[in-house]
Amino acid sequence: MENKNIEKALTYLKAEPNFDEKIEKVIAYLKAETYFEKDNLYRVIDAAEQKAQEINVPVTICISDMSGHPRMSYHMPEANIVSITLAPKKANTAIMMRKSTKDLNKDTVPNGELYQIETMMNGEIVTFAGGIPLVCHGQVIGAVGVSGGSVEEDQLICELSVKTFFEGE
Fold it and tell me: Structure pTM?
């Protein structure tokens, strides 16, 4: 009897619009928690710090969850103080906009589609490189923000951080 009820429920659910999309979303959210485990976050911070030391640029690294809450942040000694503010803002921007912050710059120049978005969002949006969303099964589950070097250096360290994040399965 119980198996028939389960089969009936699955048949009903599969008839729902966008069933496969909804399942992918659930899988992404469940999997997200494994990625945000402390050991994985430490691995990401360690890899980012190692790269930053390799290129001789102290930075702040911030890993935020899909709600924009920092799950782990690290400010390297000698990193610019402003990077403490910018790294989480870069991560949050990547979450809110669902794209890398480096891809926002061209749209925020005068006559761009998003011109003055930084002002309209009270400075909460960052439109230069160093913020990348963490995408799992097509869903944004968080983001990494890096600040302290040039935009190219921040982006390089951020890309390595994202790669390392997903290696922690």
Answer: 0.85
